[in-house]
What we know:
The complex is a heterotrimer of chains A (about 350), B (about 190) and C (about 675).
Chain A: H1 4-28, H2 42-75, H3 92-127, E1 135-142, E2 145-151, E3 159-162, E4 165-168, E5 173-179, E6 184-187, E7 195-197, E8 203-207, E9 213-219, E10 231-237, H4 239-250, H5 259-270, H6 273-276, E11 278-279, E12 284-285, E13 300-301, E14 306-307, H7 310-318, H8 320-323, H9 336-348
Chain B: H1 4-34, H2 47-51, H3 76-88, H4 91-95, E1 110-111, H5 117-126, H6 141-154, E2 185-186
Parallel strand pairs in B: 1-2
Helix pairs in contact in B: 3-6, 5-6
Chain C: H1 31-45, H2 50-56, H3 60-89, H4 99-134, H5 142-164, H6 189-217, H7 230-263, H8 276-310, H9 317-330, H10 346-358, H11 360-375, H12 383-405, H13 408-414, H14 418-448, H15 454-480, H16 497-527, E1 557-558, H17 565-568, E2 574-576, E3 585-589, E4 596-601, H18 608-625, H19 628-651, E5 654-655, E6 663-665
Antiparallel strand pairs in C: 1-2, 2-6, 3-4, 4-5
Helix pairs in contact in C: 3-4, 3-5, 3-16, 4-5, 4-6, 4-7, 4-8, 5-6, 5-18, 6-7, 6-18, 7-8, 7-9, 8-11, 8-14, 9-11, 12-14, 12-15, 14-15, 15-16, 18-19
Amino acid sequence: MARGPRCVEHARRASRRVASGILAVAVAGCAGSQNVLDPAGPPNRSVNHLFWAMLIVSSIIWVAVVVAALWALISRRRRTREDLEPVVIVPNERHRREVGIVTGLVGATVVILLLFLVYDFTVGRALAERPSRTLTIELIGHQWWWEVHYIDPDPSKLMVDANELHIPAGEPVQVKLSSQDVIHSFWVPNIIGKRDLIPGYTSSLFLDADKPGVYHAQCAEFCGLEHAKMALPVIVHSRADFTAWLAEARSPAAEPSDSSAAEGKKIFLAGTCSSCHAVTGVEAYGTIGPNLTHIGSRRTIAAGTLPNTRGNLGGWIVDPQSIKPGARMPSNQLAGKDLRNLIDYLETLK
Amino acid sequence: MCSRSDQWSVLGGRWSAVSVMTAVALLLLGCERENRRFSENPPTASPTASALVVSQLQPGPAVVRPQVEAPYDDNAWAVSEGKMLFNAMNCSGCHFQGGGGIGPPLMDAEWIYGSEPDQVFSSIADGRPNGMPAWKYKLSTQQIWELVSYVRSLSSLIPKGARNGRDDHMMTKPPESSTPQTKPKMASTPPEDD
Amino acid sequence: MTNPARRLPPNESAVTEPAALPDATPVTLNEDVLIDDARRLEMTWRDGGGLWGWLTTVDHKVIARRYIITAFLMFIAGGLEAGMMRMQLARPENTFLGPDRYNQIFTTHGTTMMFLFAVPIMTAMGLYFVPLMVGARSIAFPRLNAFGYYTYLMGVIFLYVSLFLNMAPDAGWTAYVPLSGPEYSPGHRVDVWAQLVTFTEIAALAAAVNIIVTTFKMRAPGMSLNRIPLFVWAQLVVAFMIIFAMPAVAIASTLQLASDRAIATHWFNPAEGGDALLWQHIFWFFGHPEVYIIFLPGLGFITPIVETFCRRRVFGYTAIVLSNITTGFFAFGLWVHHMFATPIPELGQSLFTAASMMIAIPTGVQIFCWLVTMFSGRPRLTTAMVLILGFFITFVNGGLTGVMLASVGFDKQVHDTFFVVAHLHYVLLGGAVTPLFAAFYFWFPKVTGRLMNETLGKWQAWLFIIGVNLTFFPMHILGLNGMPRRIYTYLSQTGWGPLNALVSAGAVIIVVSVTLFIVNAAMSWRSGLLAGANPWDSYGLEWATPSPAPSYNFLNTPVVLGRHPLWDTGSPLPVVTGLRTDRREVLVTTTFDAQPDHRHKHPTASIWPLIMALVMAELWIGSIFTPWAVLGGVGLTLLCMLGWGWQSTAETDVERVATEGRIVEAA
């Protein structure tokens, strides 16, 4: 019982140490390509400011409450060791003062909350604006990959891609979100908050990034077995680079020049690949798997799960279930040479 | 004869044996329906050899056909994957949702090439005359077995627990889990186009 | 007992005019008569022996104790599941649990904690202590109480047998459609979830009805509404919330989801006119009040503990009562804040932002009242008070992140990430579980007659506070660093590894703390220091009867003249006599002023609650496998109701006689 104050002192020191350790880690966690706190566009910047404002005020309030509680427990504690103290009777003037204090604190709470509310509404209104934009992208969620359509008023210019998103910097892009099966959520933390992809609904999200770079988006609504491995890189190009990229991407796949790639193309078409995957310009029209027209230039495969290297691609083709158990892609037992040719072909699909 | 305590201990022994057996039985029954079999190559064991025998007449003494078990008849997840494949591979393009059109109906009791798992496997993998494509180069063995169990579920030949409920699309027919079981019979000739 | 003040504090005198009571001719009771009464009451109210007595008991304390033990076992089970999740997530691309198993484990963790631990244990604390705190011999509907427990137990067994049969639900404790619908969750896993909700919902409703009627109609004479202990007020508000919230989840899960899955209805099928978002609305209309159902009883525990250990009547009784009611009411207007990422109109979302921020005000009021109480009292740092300090440290943090989450723009960034996981655990562990542990330390002597060990207790308390903060604080950072929820693994290049390892290490501390608690409880139950009737010199009526309380709770019904009976009137309390000792009788009083109204013959032990629970269990479980089980089950249930009602009616005997009792002062 006399250990009371010492215990509290120990706890204070320990918690200070933990707090500084946490602060160190926290500061390190303020940058990155999949990070809310590293904004790449104006909307997220304003959300960040709102967050920091709320965090600072909340921290002050938390410290105040904890300090008050500790102070009350320590300064007012019983110093005598008599067994059972009589019950305290609070005189009227003290009681009136207490009423004043509590009323003041409640009033302060109301004022702070109102301020938060007004600030939030201001940020919210700005976020909710529908800016004019030049580019519309449709993002369709599947279990467990992303289908991306780059819309153009000229239907022949429609470009279908998968598992990677390219947008230009400095202008708002409208992303229309829908789902083919269950609820998914598209979330690219650096650029903007998330939006759910709900079957039966088409919702809209405006991406407005001004810092070119490669960011990471990930599915953020539990969608089944491989929800954890349903990511996609979001590449923000400068305007000029984006136009060039889009023009290049719209062109159909070129005929493979080298013989191993040509062999690989035959395997692609004759085997199981073309029943699920499509490649523009080639007789592969499958729609239940991602479009592979640009597989060669993607940074990752399997919806952001693996970097796109020959080894990974080979491993994925032969045994996807060991990488993403439950994914809808079956194992494909291919002989070594066939596999190499197939990978050669896929690499030509830039 | 037995003292009271003996009776109790015998009963206790019996009761615990009964409960253990019940638990084991439950374990064996419940497990397979809910298993998710991700990566495996179920046996194909040349089902095609015996599958082609579609006539019930045999010369000489009757020889019992070896039974090939469908690996996924009890597995609800595999049957739902089969349904996904049925629509994705456009089986519904000819067979519609089991009602038949260009291709024969799959939800009725009449089977031209047999309803046994290996016979259905062969129908899908090897193709059949008059328009059924051969899928064995386009689908993996596991996927074909999933389709086999799904197709059999269309006429409720697999246990109720493994059959699909309704899907999230327009409802064209009652879900397989509510259709009554049929007794398959061989059709003598393919259905005529009218 | 030392001399408690027999005069009331000046600022309380206005509300504590003794209610008008019949002729208060003081009479001193003969001690021999008292002993004789005690013996006869014990014979009337005790349970039968053997297995039959055990199965047929309707004693609210026995049943509440079973609830608490079962729910605590569920806490441990949920904790083990969390431990497995943390082991899997401690390293990137770990292979301890595959995706299928992980999904089942995290779903079972959430379902267990929310449905099988948190709500049952809070209602159980009410079922145990509310009758004692209001001075009643028993709870209002003892057989319904037993039925509620058995139904809950069936639910527990059902879920855990399913877990071992590879049939545990795997779509999250929120089971969003279409993932939990028939197409994307084949098999019966989600059906287990849907029916489990039914079991727990029925048990919660039974408990809620009991608490409301006991509180309104069975209080000690003189305990007007403004003298009801704050613990009881919290339980009362929660009981009303249960009645309004639980039917929503029952409709969503039992009616709609189960029927979509079993008989091809289209509630959530967009292609046939249904709507996937409808599930979210109905579920969260229940789900948000659910977390307040879990949290408000925690607040109810804090007031008596603070009052007792700070030796001061709480500041702001009326403010706290109104806060509880306001929180309970407004909790029903917040649910859309779980859906800010869905395509709902922004104006609607803003309304819920405002409401979600506003609900911090009543909770803040309560916290300020307690702080003031502590400042003007003489605090004593027992284990329970350490845990109350832990409440301030942990819950306030969670409440503040909750206000941050109320903002739509910010929420859209951290919704469905570990930031939310951090927030919800801070508020639930800090706001509900920490006060629950404090309540265990405080009321353990009343239940068992022995004190818990203070040294072990203080260790447990500090370890728990440190463990919770170490485990869940880094999750805020993980969420801001992009880590979504409900993922079974993550890539090492995300950089989430080190913080996750820290989180998993913190979880070990929580395990140690809970183990210490169990050891303490077990040791103390057997060989702790004997506590008397009132070891803490607290003020409530539950402390005016021996520890543990006898089966009949009070020898004679006490009379209450203030909010703090034992402090206002001193011990021994004035009592009302006249209840019969040869049969089970309770005193029913009026709702507002608790004037004695009539004596009511109370039910004896019965096997019907157990039979009914078994029959309904068969109904719900069977309905998963075949819709015909519903018909058969309903028929059997009606038969059970017939049997139960038959027994009840034969025994009922309402005597609306004028109260014969007189106010006496027991010698």
